Amino acid sequence: MDSSTVVWFRRDLRTADHPALLAAAERASRALALFVLDPVLLRASGGPRVEFLHRCLRSLDADLGGRLVVVEGDPVEVVPRVAAEVGATSVHVSADAGPYGRARDAAVAERVELVRAGSPYAVTPGRVTKPDGTPYRVFTPFCRAWLEHGWHSPARTDASTVDWIRSDLGRDLPAGDGLPDVRALWEAFRDEKLPDYATRRDRPDLDATSRFSPFLKWGVVHPRTLLADLGRGAGAQAFRTELAWRDFYADVLWHQPESARRNFNRAFDRMPVDDDRERFEAWCAGRTGYPFVDAGMRQLLAEGWMHNRVRMVVASFLVKDLHLPWWWGARHFMRHLVDGDLASNQHGWQWAAGTGTDAAPYFRVFNPVTQGEKFDPAGDYVRRYVPELRDVPGKAVHQPRDPIVDHAQERREALARYAAVKG
Ligand code: FAD
């Protein structure tokens, strides 16, 4: 057994159900807990996501009895240096499936032994394949195979699994709050909202979803822990399917890393897109004149989060009503979302744009008015985020006010552009 090792936390900011902790405890008698603030990732993140990360780190540090070492710098340089300073020859991590993380880890592994155990997904990306070994490109058969493949039981770990090294190599985190009791939040959702999740999850006015995406993004909780706790019923089944979407998009990105930046379906490279910064700014600010779209964009700016139904509608609006490139919208989302996750975000956008896997048929263009009337029937969601409409009663609030474009006209334009590509 080695005398010391390093556990390098990244998107696994917890001590429960943590296979890399088990692997570290088997390998060495003591371990240093490390988190690296990587300027490349910080630059791409807006204030709310960085603040949420700090909260996660404060909670993890408290769980580790104040022994988390936080260092700012390039991980390729920092991780081997910190390992050498504590006399460790190995570093334990949960595998990262994203393009940046994979390249970074390969560079770190050239300098110090990197031991991967577990990943942020129920099933590690790349493991679920068709019988002939090729990846799935369509969700429904992936989901079937994913359920058949199954996942491990939660790993029994906690902060005491490892004897943590005390060190003054790191810097202090800015003062502030940690996270609320995430287990209690989960139990409240499971007991009160999960039974009706299947029927209510599409309603942004109801607060009927888990809002666990930021915790899942940073690995404060592992999806396997939630899957093991779901039980039976339509709500549980619908929730399981949503976690399968998360694994599916990570799997797609793992097989096709370039799909983070380009159309998954390359036929759409031929489709002309506009370059209108003014319209883009109006969309970003929630000033399109379509109240359901504006409410969503303002919720994003105010809370760093947006309801899934509204994400679909605002994304469709950017691509099909404003004819702007989906990657402009994806970049804005990644900057502002607390749960900003490259796989779910870029592929959520490509789904809406019709350029991705399992794409919504290109001729399905969301109507922002009827979507609002259907999923926010009393208009409460819009009135919550668009204060100037507070006095408009009921669903009348969904009627456009000084719209920057005419939906019917832009819908025809979008269909013509898509048809030209399909033709
Ligand atoms: P719940 O309904 O409680 O779902 C439980 C969990 O399942 C979520 O926390 C999430 O991890 C997963 N999930 C649910 N829906 C999806 C989905 N469509 N795709 C992948 N995973 C899903 N999700 C992100 O986590 N990060 C993103 O950056 C992101 N960007 C998106 C961009 C667009 C354009 C669209 C249409 C969707 C995006 N999503 C993203 C997916 C989805 O909107 C969020 O996961 C969901 O709204 C989070 O709220 P919740 O935790 O209450 O979800």
Automatic annotation (TrEMBL):
It comes from Saccharothrix saharensis. FAD binds at residues 197, 209-213, 239, 242-249, 339-341. InterPro entries: Crypto/Photolyase_FAD-like_sf, Crypto/Photolyase_N_sf, Cryptochr/Photolyase_FAD-bd, Cryptochrome/DNA_photolyase_1, DNA_photolyase_N, Rossmann-like_a/b/a_fold. Residues 3-129 form the Photolyase/cryptochrome alpha/beta domain. Belongs to the DNA photolyase family. PROSITE patterns: PHR_CRY_ALPHA_BETA. Keywords: Chromophore, FAD, Flavoprotein, Lyase. This is Deoxyribodipyrimidine photo-lyase. One of its GO terms (molecular function) is DNA binding. The lineage of its organism: Bacteria, Bacillati, Actinomycetota, Actinomycetes, Pseudonocardiales. GO terms for biological process: response to light stimulus. Its cofactor is FAD. Binds 1 FAD per subunit.
